[in-house]
Amino acid sequence: AQKITQTQPGMFVQEKEAVTLDCTYDTSDQSYGLFWYKQPSSGEMIFLIYQGSYDEQNATEGRYSLNFQKARKSANLVISASQLGDSAMYFCAMREGRRAGSYQLTFGKGTKLSVIP
Amino acid sequence: DTAVSQTPKYLVTQMGNDKSIKCEQNLGHDTMYWYKQDSKKFLKIMFSYNNKELIINETVPNRFSPKSPDKAHLNLHINSLELGDSAVYFCASSQEPAGGPTFFGPGTRLTVL
Fold first, then answer.
1. Which of A34, A104, A111, A112 to mutate to probe the B interface, most B CBs <10 Å?
2. Among A47, A65, B22, B79, which residue has the least CB neighbours within 10 Å?
3. Which of A47, A89, A106 minimises the CB distance to B41?
4. Burial code of B34-48, b = ≥16 C-beta within 10 A, e = fewer?
């Protein structure tokens, strides 16, 4: 079974509009972390935002916010005021593990976001 | 002041050759990883090292051998390259167990002809 599910292979958004990228996860651990990464066409993996499973507040970083709904096991990324430079692949990832060095990231298949002028 | 660097960025080679990818991080992290991104953009862990000790070794052919000479470096050596090894290989690092993000290097695009 997939641990991270991103159901939107591709999304379009008008410039300056907000967009939500969906992510659901599956884990039996109580302690875990959720991440979003951006991969532009140049190929690098850029860290955007992190949410810990015990964090009560939704994480925010500038125009990015993570809508964390623990009971639903969802961790959606919200990008406000989209810009052309936001066009990229976006990956949701989960970190589990109990031993140092075992905190690997499990990735979803990604969502390709295209921002339309 | 690059946080995680890896070389080379591109690697084109013939089947059967042996090649290495080098990775260095200057973040002071104690855990480093190799991830592989396939042609469908799917990312998967290959190895992790914590303080030079191999922790995670996923189902990877033993032609792939990681080596960590110190906490700041993690290299990947691949023997007898095959067509199916063509992918982007990312080095990454994180500080554990304090948490915080995993930072990735720029990736090495390996093409096996």
1. A104
2. B79
3. A89
4. bbbbeeeeebbbbbb
Q: Which amino acid is at A98?
A: R
Q: How far is B17 from chain A (nearest CA, A)?
A: 25
pLDDT in tens, A78-95: 999 999 999 999 999 999
- A59-73, A76-90, A101-115: lowest mean pLDDT where? A101-115
Q: What is the DSSP string of chain B?
A: --SEEEE-SEEEE-TT--EEEEEEE-S--SEEEEEEE-TT--EEEEEEEETTEEEEE-S--TTEEEEEEETTEEEEEE-S--GGG-EEEEEEEE-TTT----EE---EEEEE-
Q: How close does chain A come to B103, measured CA to CA in Å?
A: 7
